[in-house]
Design brief:
Elements: H1 2-15, H2 22-30, H3 50-53, H4 55-66, E1 70-71, H5 72-79, H6 83-95, E2 99-106, E3 109-116, H7 118-137
Antiparallel strand pairs: 1-3, 2-3
Length: 142
């Protein structure tokens, strides 16, 4: 569901047009979707969830929305980021309750696993909904 909406959001971005006349701008204004504030550190109707909005954190949450579980090394390879960068952003998502981290061993090798929580999934859906509404509001055809 989230992956499908993310794909739809990309199509909206690709098909977005700017209203060129006052008439079309007025019509677009009357059909503007309501922008709702999202959870996290956001405030105001145009504010985005600052926890998810950062590029690496959005990528982590998106990857975990598609995969039930990813290890630290899998996420690192998927996102092409450094150990420190991934660790810092994953910890921020964990503190917000968007992901859970489980540390253990596979034989003698440390293994860290991440999963998306229901709160994280709702936050991602709200973020995607907010982005879709924002794109439509500025003149996208949707």
């Amino acid at each position: 569901m989230v992956a499908k909406r993310a794909s739809a959001a990309v199509k909206v971005v690709k098909g977005a047009k700017i209203a060129k006349t006052a008439k079309t701008a007025g019509a677009a204004a009357s059909a503007r979707p309501e922008l709702k504030a999202v959870d996290g550190e956001a405030s105001g109707p145009l504010a985005l969830d600052r926890v998810i909005h950062e590029r690496v954190r959005l990528a982590i949450v998106s990857a975990l929305a598609v995969h039930e579980l990813l290890t630290f090394n899998e996420l690192k390879a998927l996102l092409e980021t450094s150990d420190g960068n991934l660790s810092v952003h994953a910890r921020k998502l964990e503190e917000a309750g968007y992901v859970v981290c489980k540390k253990g061993y596979e034989g003698r090798v440390p293994r860290t696993e991440y999963r998306l929580t229901p709160t994280g999934r709702r936050a991602l859906e709200a973020y995607l909904g907010h982005m879709e509404a924002l794109i439509r509001r500025v003149g996208g055809d949707g």
